[in-house]
Structure formats: C-alpha cells, structure tokens
Amino acid sequence: MTIATDEVTPLLGLVASNDSSDRPIVAIIGGGFTGAALAYHLAERLAADAVRIVVYEPRATLGAGLAYGTDDPVHRINVPAARMTLVPDDDEHFQRWLVETGALADDLQANTADGHVFARRSAFGRYVAAQLQPFIAAGRIEHRRIRAEAAIPARGGGWYIDAEDGSRFTADVMVLATTHPSPAAPAALDHALAGHPRYIADATVPGALSKIRPQDRVLVLGAGLTAADVIAALDAVDHQGPITAVSRRGLRSRGHNLAPQDPFGEFVTPPARSARALLRRIRNTLAEAQAAGVTWHAVFDRLRAQGGEIWRALPPVERRRLVRFLRPYWDVHRFRIAPQVEGAIDRRVAEGTLAFHAASVREVRCAVENDEIAVTFRRRHGLGTFEGRYDAVVVTTGPDHRSILSSQPLFAGLAAAGLLQADPAGLGVEVDHNSRVVRTDGETAQTLYVAGPLARGTFGELMGLPQVTEHAVFVAERIALTVRALKGHPGRATGIV
Description:
seven-stranded mixed β-sheet, six-stranded mixed β-sheet
C-alpha cells in the first residue's frame, strides 16, 4: 500500500516543528511493544535531523508494556523464540540476542526436548528495550514517562497533547499505540462480588493472584491465553485446590505441533465473500490436510499468513458475523500456548484438579459469614444448569473491545469531539487503508494514526506479534512520507508549551 501524491500534498499546510533543527514532531501514545516498534522503525527510516520522536509511556522502559512487562517466571511467550523479532526480515534476531546476552542462563525450562526455545515474556520485553536504547541514548527517541490524558487539534494543524502532570506538548503527527481495554466481568458477578477479598476482576494486574490460598476452590471465567497463564501460575506456586474454567463455548487454548510442516491450503484465490463460505472452505481444507497427513496447525498457519487479505475481502456485515460467531474458534487455534504451560494444564486435568465447562453465569451469591461464592451456571445449548461453590473468582474473559472509546480519557475526549470512532466490527478504532483515523463525519484525520491491534477492524489479523511488527513498519513508512512532506514548511509544533 502507498500514499498517493494527492494524499500527501494537503499536509504541506499543516504544522511543522520550528525548533532549532526545524524537525517535525511525531508523538506516539503508548510505549508497549507496538509503540516501541513504531518508534524503532521510524528512527531507522529517518535521519536524526528529519524528525523528533516522542513516546508517552508511564512505565520505566519502552517495549515491555502489559504483555512483556510481567515478572512472573511462568508467563512465557507462546511461540518459539525463533519466530519472535522486532526486525521482520530477520526471524532469529531475538533468539540470537538470547544467546549473546546469556538471557536464558537462569531459565532452565526455556528449552523444550526437541530444541525449541519458549522464553519468558519478560525476556522479550528486555530485548525490545535493548534495541531502542541506542536511539534513546542518542536523543533520537524521547521517552516521556507520563500518561497522555487528552489531545485536541492544534491551530493550523497537528495536535496539542495534555499530560496528567498538566503539561502541554505540541506535535505535528500523533499515533495511538495503546493497549487493549481491560476485561469486563458479567454484571451479575461484578455486582455480587464487589469488595470480596478474592475476587480478581483483572488477572493482568501484577500480583493479582497472590490473594489466592493453596487450597482455595478457584473459578476462572474464560479459557483463553490469560486463563492458561492463570492456571499455570497457580500451579507453579503449589496451589492444590480444584480449578474450574468456564467459558461460553468451553474451548481450551491449543498447543503447538513443532514438527516441520509448511502452511497448508489456499484462502484468497478466490477469497470467500461470507463468513459461512470461509468456514466451509476451512473445514474442507482441514479434511484435505488430515488426508495428507498434515495437522490442523499448518492450515491455521496459512490462515494467519493470509488473514489480512481474507478480512479485506469480506463485506462489513460478514466481518461482524465472523467476529460474533467464529472468533473464539479462531483464537484457540491461532494463539497457542507454550509447551510448558500446556504441560501444567494437561497434568491438572489428568489429576482431576482442573475442569473446563461450556456455560455462562446465571446467578451469583456470596455468603457473608465465610466469603464462599455460589455460582449458578446455564449450560451451553440450553442443557440445564449446574452450581459450583468457590473461594476465589478470576476474570480472564479478554479485552472488552466494546469499551475501547471509554477505556481511557484520551480516547473518550477524542470520541466526544467526533475525532475518533469505533470500527464497524467492534474490534478497535476505525482507520483508513493508511491506518489514519476516520472521524465521525467520515473524513480522514490526516495526522492521526493508529498502530497495532486497535487497527485490526480495517487490517484484519493484527494480534500476533509478527503481524503487529509488520503493521508498525507499515505505519512508520506512512508517517515517514508525512514527515518528509512537513520538513521545511515551518508551522506551530514546538514541543512543550
């Protein structure tokens, strides 16, 4: 994809930096992996005197974010290290860094029996930070360790960005690269358990599971990657009580087949025009793969690689249908768990201390005298109800994408002003084919971009790290064109005001 000349020309009248080096300013909101990757690739593409890159991120380092900032040793990257990289053309960049830095010296469980490396997530966070450090040390990337609270259009173009400390910063280009919204617990659960000492509404909060006692009966709501992490983390600290994982469909995250096999199938020539047709093609391809002695993993690897094209070929109504009915099945096959985590789950199931159910919460009661939680569930497909009694409840239902516009003050302010809207599929923010925000009036915000998973309503598969990296490169290239257009056309962006 490219930006046509007539799309860049109007930018020449927008704000540009009038600091001593006349550098346009790009402000990136969010310094987790997405924001860090964008800053890195933007710095790689533009000379030091061509742009000023400022990243708003309250955490101490750039690159870790929520996903890779965890210090729990059980939390592992869910794909082999050889497939994780900040550099798209160098698949083994991260794995070489692990070897060169000795980062695995204290992680004796990282290597599987067949030679694959599933490193801790914290190691990948340190790797990304290490790649950015030379740019930070040279002043090429500036880390503003503070949260951006609001943004409004600047006079003549660009953006005024207000931080939580009351400071105001002016930038020519702003990029939203923030994390997903927090999970949303069922309303009945949230109301009944407010204030309960072992009700954990967000399992991603550091130390959240420390409240759970070794013999507690634990209910985990959700059965995806976060649920798998929770179960493995409890197992690692010798939790012995029964764990019940409940989700609407009762699906478990799947593991890997690490034996070499090429992606299998073809889904874009011609592309499916409906969710039903796509499902039919997937089922047929899975049958063909099985007949050829190929596992389902290879079929989903092909689906992942062609995900963007598949998504763009679907009309909006079919995208919504796919998200509503098929996304849970996609998630458990696409986002696989590390063998170490899978082993812990399989062992608990075999021991009878872990069970999965397909159901939804119907009623919640809490005993005042002993904090015991009684939950009545409605089985899937109307197959009656059942009740369970628990000492702790952990919500792992995944990001509540419906609340994206209200998930943080900056988004809420932009939405209230008509400068931001949810995408029609309900996955994030609506953007155009260049990842620029589409306002509520249908016009494109020329200098407001979205990088990473929040743009997947337009781009499709943007949850896996390789796709997020590729999208960061894509957005960096679009912004580089914008910056080159701004260079030499003085305007307003001067930084702190």
